[in-house]
Design brief:
With 342 residues, this protein is mainly α. α2 packs parallel to α4 (113-141), α3 runs antiparallel to α4 and α9 (255-272) packs antiparallel against α12 (316-326). It is built from 13 helices and no strands. 66% of the residues lie in helices and 0% in strands. It has helices at residues 2-14, 29-53, 69-107, 113-141, 154-171, 182-197, 207-225, 231-247, 255-272, 284-290, 298-305, 316-326, 329-335.
């Protein structure tokens, strides 16, 4: 079974499904559907085998002649572990089945090119995460060292979140100059988006985000290059920018970012409030490392950016609030296979 996981993950790694956001090229997503559906089906079949293999109902029942309590305890423990693994495989398979159904349904619809491209990209992300998650659980159960794999890149995700945070700051009410003209505001955001497109992580953004940014960029250019520049159209455009920027916070629901954030929040609480008592001043590394959390909580953002402030007490409430929010069971269960970010 290990060989089957290795072979399928290699096929996934070699598959290229990055969809260009250019309106003339995005239709190429239809060419990706056969390969993506084939990989999803193979992943579903493999996970179904895992469920059957590790189903405790098919395992040997307790031997009536066994007189060792230790042996009985070990067998019961093994059955619980197998049940947990079977459940992980079941939920992973269910997620891939949902991804496959959504992809097939969209492929049969007309004028659904954008949704089709999105399902192709998200389907590949979800199958890789599901397979590596289950593979890791198998090796853990068998008490073997799992292959060194990465189903995400935290640094890339942090860079993307920072890009989105910058865009939100450019459009949020408390950060903009109220005396600035709507033209200057749009121009500033325009430059920000143009700068985004030059970065190496830009192609790694979700295709729907890239397409939306492209459309907003065109609307801004059309308005700025027009002669009359109707103010009503500019204000509508501005509200669309603000609405889009506010939705981008969903990137922080990804599993890898939530794990990273919870670990960092825990370190901050220990550094600032060891034993429940506040230290005398905020360590410099808290300000520096805290930049990775920008965009999660406005109150915490202000504390992180106020690098000249040494007051420690104001940090407790936002740190605890954010840690409680990210630890919510319903958020964790949805993020296990990246549902929110897809």
């Amino acid at each position: 079974m290990a060989d089957r996981f290795e072979h399928l993950i290699q096929r996934i790694d070699k598959a290229e499904v990055r969809v260009p956001e250019d309106s003339a090229l995005i239709s190429l997503a239809a060419d990706l559907v056969p390969n993506v559906t084939r990989l999803l089906r193979d992943g579903i079949d493999l996970l179904e085998l895992v469920e059957a293999h590790y189903d405790p109902e098919t395992a040997n029942s307790l031997d009536d002649e066994t007189d060792s309590l230790d042996a009985i305890g070990m067998q019961i423990s093994a059955e619980f572990a197998m049940r947990d693994l079977s459940n992980v495989a079941f939920f992973a398979r269910s997620d891939l089945r949902n991804a496959l159904d959504a992809l097939i349904t969209t492929a049969t619809q007309r004028h659904a090119t954008m949704t089709l491209a999105s399902h192709c990209e998200s389907g590949m992300r979800r199958i890789r995460k599901a397979l590596i998650s289950v593979e890791s659980a198998i090796y853990e159960l068998e008490e073997l060292e799992a292959p060194k794999r990465r189903w995400f890149d935290v640094e890339v995700s942090l860079q993307i979140r920072r890009l989105y945070w910058n865009l939100r700051r450019e459009t949020s009410g408390r950060n903009i100059d109220q005396h600035q003209s709507i033209e200057d505001r749009l121009r500033a955001v325009l430059y920000r988006i143009v700068a985004f497109r030059e970065l190496s992580v830009y192609p790694l953004l979700r295709v729907e985000d890239r397409v939306t940014l492209r459309r907003l960029l065109k609307r801004m250019l059309d308005w700025l290059n027009s002669r009359d520049r109707p103010e009503l159209e500019a204000r509508r455009l501005w509200e669309d920018l603000r609405g889009f920027a506010s939705l981008l916070v969903q990137v922080s629901h990804r599993q890898e970012l939530r794990d990273h954030d919870l670990a960092l929040l825990g370190r901050f609480l220990v550094a600032l409030f060891p034993g429940g008592r506040a230290v005398s001043a905020v360590p410099e590394e808290v300000f520096q490392q805290g930049k990775a959390l920008l965009g999660l909580d406005e109150e915490l953002d202000e504390l992180i950016l106020a690098a000249d402030s040494q007051a420690v007490a104001p940090w407790l409430a936002p740190l605890e609030r954010l840690r409680k929010h990210l630890s919510r069971p319903q958020l964790a269960s949805m993020g296990r296979f990246d549902l929110l970010s897809d």
